[in-house]
Amino acid sequence: MLSIPEIEILMTGIGRPMSAGLIGDILRENGFTRMPKRDRATKEETYRNSGYAQLVKAPISKALAFDTRESSISTKGAGLLCFLPIIKKYGIDTAIENSMYPGTSIIGKLNSILCFLALKLSDFERYGQDDAWCMDRGLGMFAGLNVLPKTTWFSIYADKVTRDMNATFLKDCNKIWKANGLLNDTVNLDFVAIPYWGDPDTFERNWSGKRRKAIESIEAALAHDPDTGIICYGDTTVLHENQNEVVLEFLDFFHSNEQENNNLKYLVFDSKATILENLGKLDDKGIKFLTIQRKSESQRKKAAEIKDWKKARIGLENHKSRQIIYAESETTNNRYGKGKRLRQIFLKGSHVKHSCVITNDFELSAELIVRKYARRWLVENEIQEHVDFFHLNRNSSGIVIKVDFDLTMTILAHNLYRLLANEIPRYYHCTAKKIYKSFIEGLGEFDIDDATVKVKLNLKRGIQLLLGALPKDRFHYHWIGGKEFYFQANNHS
Hints:
- By secondary structure, this protein is of the alpha+beta class.
- The protein is built from 17 helices and 15 strands.
- The strands form two sheets. Strands 2, 3, 4, 5, 6, 7, 8, 9, 10 and 11 form a ten-stranded mixed sheet that branches. Strands 1-12-13-15-14 form a five-stranded mixed sheet.
- The radius of gyration is 25 Å and the shape is elongated.
């Protein structure tokens, strides 16, 4: 059973718009009563089981015709349209158009990528033919289409995308982040195991932090700015045989244009991301590094011999603090470089099993070194968010997408949420899921006239904060008929 707003969206999507009042009159005349209030899980289950896609034929996705005037078009994607000014402000639409991504005979390059982005920005846990997104005019408007394409189109398009296309696009995005002061001198690097649910014979087993065990999966590397939350790198081509080279491969990616990307000074990463020989290469390049030393028997014995342990209290991101117990020493290793020194900081405590942080930074205090390494766990939180909210490689999806392309679209969606969160007072630290629930999710309407699209967001707590966070510039969206967008609160919830 669908609600009146959901029926209204469906009827509008198939080209037979009906007002909510008329739908309500028809339902009452046929003996239907008001539905009880449902939680989100119940609504999603209703969508999956309704089978309305078998009752009505979904329209064919195509570029919007802007020679008509329409009003009061209901949509569940009204909040999603708030990302359009952000995309325009940072020139992401230009980066997409200048990318190597393909277009199709009916749907252009920019429209195609925005179709994927629309699904990533929306919290649809399952992409299938029976879902509402293939009927929603608001989601289609985001991409400059009448409605989004069906699942088959997404799979066919993804087959045309290569790793080179994704890497080049990420580099172009990094130019945008750098130009806007969103990439600082420190980058955290970590791994994520993306589960594979088919025949596992050709896949390696990698440790999954979410599942607390090794699983057949594709291992991916992610790089994250700890200050702004921007993810600047993603690679799904990591294998056991080349995972020690991940740090150097990231530097090659990041320093492909030395004049534009010369601000990187500090790399913080997992111990399996490189080996001592490569740490020496980082030092030769003038890069400060910070990592956990791989555990060994000699390391354990050295820690057991330490008598002069010190206590310190370090500040954390949530304005709290934690006491650590540490001891410092220096060491050398010919594999790292003849005569080169390494700084060791041994840690122990209730929250830290005996570990040793190694670095070539002899200037920062031990407390700051430990805090800097602790912030690496932020990228692990971002990875968890990718799995939970952006549905990275969700096995229940009806869309088959190349994993590297899926990761690239996930990174772009994540960064858009970070850009929005950074503009909302007191919400800069919130996850994408929190931002979506608080501001983006919800019904709304839009009106189209000769020069503008007026988006009316249904009333909810925080709506004024969202409207205040949107860029104030008046942009013309060339993929939406060159129209301007105006955002306002609706007169009802």
